[in-house]
Write a structure and sequence with these properties.
11 helices, 18% strand, globular, alpha/beta, 46% helix
Length: 325
């Protein structure tokens, strides 16, 4: 009986060694085929545009093709769940923001993924500042004028949203300024922005990249940025706090994740290449023109950051009195 037990243990040990060897071989040969980057937002969004620029350089660095797959819907839950259930082999990755990994646990009742347990952090790529834009027909040229108009016309103003940052920014604005605003949610920012420009919705908090071309074309009027201080990307715009709305400091971050259980060697390879790209002065400057403050760090730093942001966004959403949907 003892000899049989020893043989079984030897068999199990051999199997474990074979699996470890296979995993090492897979990591050594990585990547050997195209990599798919899954995005929780539609084409034309800030995350989509910046990811396409970074992916061009990542494709060259890794020597394989990069496929962008936009899976907009359910506030990013469709994309996040899809990647969480994918094989942890480094060929299906999620490029996402605070929407899926900071806010959704406090916005959605039936979340189908865990932002910490179901993912492997790879690399942070930077921040995407947001700004408040309104339809030019709204009679306000400043935040103070918008607040005054909203208080004089309760229930007449509405705000669109295509991300958690937009949802929380709108609700925080309404709560902190004492306004009665109607929330109109969308799957992603581009269609939401179209309805603001078309006059079907009054205003929106949108990433600078997506909104600025329409502001420059006079289809929208920009009033302020959502960060505590002014943004160097649009230095002429005041912050919401500077414009008179207290306790307002909201920003969107961006990063790369894989399914839980990815081999460390693959994570290290991806992190190394992504950091080289993001920290390249020329690429960093190009990303700045797209409205992104680009920087990176280690996988461990991203993991710690995600946990910190979960605490922050719970507070933001609670303070804005947003109920789970």
């Amino acid at each position: 009986m003892i000899s049989a037990l020893i043989r079984n243990l030897r068999t199990v040990g051999a199997a474990v060694l074979c699996l470890a060897a296979a995993s090492t071989a897979q990591a050594d040969n990585y990547p050997s085929r195209n990599i798919t980057l899954v995005l929780p937002f539609a084409a034309g969004s800030g995350t989509d545009t910046t990811t396409r620029l970074i992916s061009q350089h990542l494709s060259q660095a890794l020597g394989v093709g990069i496929v962008i797959e936009n899976k907009a819907g359910a506030n990013g839950m469709l994309a996040a769940t899809y990647v969480a259930k994918a094989a942890p082999d480094g060929y299906t990755l999620l490029v996402t923001t605070n929407t899926t990994h900071s806010a959704n646990p406090y916005l959605l009742k039936n979340l189908t993924y865990d932002p910490v347990k179901d993912f492997t952090p790879i690399a942070r790529t930077g921040d995407l500042p947001f700004m408040l834009v309104i339809n030019p027909e709204v009679p306000a040229k400043s935040v103070a004028e918008l607040v005054a108009y909203g208080k004089a016309n309760p229930g007449k103003l509405s705000y669109a949203s295509g991300s958690s940052s937009a949802i929380d920014s709108g609700a925080t604005f309404a709560h902190n300024a004492g306004l009665d605003l109607l929330h109109v949610p969308y799957k992603s920012s581009p269609p939401a922005l179209n309805d603001v420009m078309g006059g079907r919705v009054s205003m929106m908090f949108v990433d600078i990249l997506t909104g600025l071309p329409h502001v420059n074309g006079n289809a929208l009027r920009a009033l302020a940025v959502t960060t505590k201080d002014r943004s160097p990307l649009v230095p002429h715009l005041p912050s919401m706090q500077e414009a008179g709305v207290p306790d307002f400091d909201i920003s969107s971050w961006q990063g790369y994740f894989g399914p839980a259980g990815m081999p460390k060697e693959i994570v290290t390879r991806l992190n190394t290449e992504i950091r080289k790209i993001v920290e390249n002065p020329e690429i960093k400057a190009k990303l700045a023109t797209l409205g992104m403050d680009a920087f990176s760090g280690t996988p461990e730093q991203l993991g710690t950051f995600v946990n910190e942001q979960l605490v922050l966004w719970e507070k933001l959403i609670t303070n804005a009195k947003i109920e789970k949907q």
